[in-house]
Design brief:
This protein has 15 helices and 15 strands. With about 350 residues, the protein is an alpha/beta fold.
């Protein structure tokens, strides 16, 4: 990658690099909150502050991380944390058709158990996919939702760890792909059948093929969930998604892929799938914005390294999977040359990254 910018464009690039550092810092903050402190804010803390619940929750969050609005971090908090916080109404989720109508039979697999999990009142949770503002140097905004009462949801646990769960973020991030599905639909990934159930209710969807490689997932569905579904529309195939994409000759009107937990673990599979895409003219990927955000950060990493003088010899040995990704990405981008910030900015757009993914060889 060769970058030769004039002084003015170099200043713009510096702003992009600063925003990237901020994005990484904020994503780390949210990761710490969701994994370590999601239940730290209690109802008594909200009541002690009083007033608007969203503002009270925001103040509790600031207190938790000792963020002072009068200092430098205050600007970041008001502009990038506050906009992502949302007080959610229970009724908007309890009316969901899956939650209202789907009932699980007893699960018979030794290591897999159906549990009734919950979010406590004022427990924060991811609400939606990351939002990226391309006009502001690709600034990322993360969503943080909360209820004022406990919210219960079904979850499958494997050896004590959550395997699949129907939480608000699943409902929200699949809404667009549910609305878009029509005709003969191919679904990669079965899960607990939420996407499958929702599109099976649509008259515009005439048939559904689900490809799932995990026989235990299929067994859970057949033994515990199948009776809730209109199976006249549905066919389930035990196969690896990539193998199926290679070997199948059928055409589908719409393809939806859900084979990962988040953007980081999803990126390698996403790249492999993007290199295939031959069964339909319309492919949709769960959490694609988050996946593209990870890819964008990886490209920006290469931009930084190019400015620091990295060369071919620095992309030979890979210590981990991320290094392998960076090495592959380096090979796909090494001949790119940028002489203006506008061209570089456009290279980081969603559409450009989707095209780039098809050229990366893992």
């Amino acid at each position: 990658m060769k970058i030769n910018l004039n002084k003015e464009d170099s200043l713009e690039l510096n702003k992009l690099l600063e925003m990237d550092e901020q994005n990484i810092s904020l994503s780390g903050l949210y990761e710490d909150y969701f994994f370590n402190n999601a239940r730290a804010i209690k109802e008594k803390d909200i009541k002690a502050i009083g007033g608007d619940k969203k503002k009270a929750f925001y103040q509790c969050f600031l207190n938790l991380y000792e963020i002072d609005l009068n200092e430098e971090d205050g600007y970041l908090a008001n502009n990038y944390i506050l906009p992502g916080i949302s007080y959610e109404r229970l009724s908007s989720y309890l009316d969901n058709p899956y939650l209202k109508n789907v009932r699980f039979n007893k699960i018979t697999l030794n290591n897999i158990h159906l549990v009734k999990d919950n979010y406590d009142a004022y427990e924060g949770f991811p609400l939606n996919d990351v939002k990226v503002d391309a006009s502001n140097y690709y600034q990322e905004t993360y969503s943080l939702g909360f209820f004022d009462k406990s919210f219960f949801f079904p979850a499958l646990n494997e050896r004590g760890e959550t395997w699949m769960a129907l939480i608000p973020s699943e409902i929200n991030t699949m809404e667009k792909a549910i609305n878009a599905a029509k005709g003969n639909v191919l679904v990669y990934g079965l899960g607990i059948g939420y996407y499958l159930y929702m599109i099976s209710l649509k008259k515009e969807v005439t048939s559904i093929t689900v490809v799932e490689k995990d026989k235990d997932v299929i067994k859970v569905f057949n033994d515990s969930l199948k009776h809730n579904f209109n199976m006249k529309k549905i066919k389930i195939i035990e196969s690896d998604a990539l193998d199926y994409e290679d070997k199948c000759n059928e055409h589908y009107d719409y393809v939806f892929t859900d084979l990962w937990h988040g953007g980081i673990d999803g990126l390698p599979i996403y790249i492999l799938m993007k290199n295939k895409e031959k069964l339909s003219s319309t492919y949709s990927y769960w959490l694609e914005e988050s996946i593209l955000a990870v890819l964008r950060r990886s490209v920006i990493t290469l931009i930084r390294e190019s400015l620091e003088g990295y060369s071919d010899k620095d992309y030979v040995k890979a210590k981990n999977d991320y290094d392998k990704l960076i090495n592959a990405l380096y090979k796909a981008t090494k001949e790119k040359e940028f002489t203006s910030y506008k061209d570089l900015h456009n290279y980081l757009s969603d559409d450009s990254l989707k095209s780039l993914a098809k050229t990366i060889k893992l």
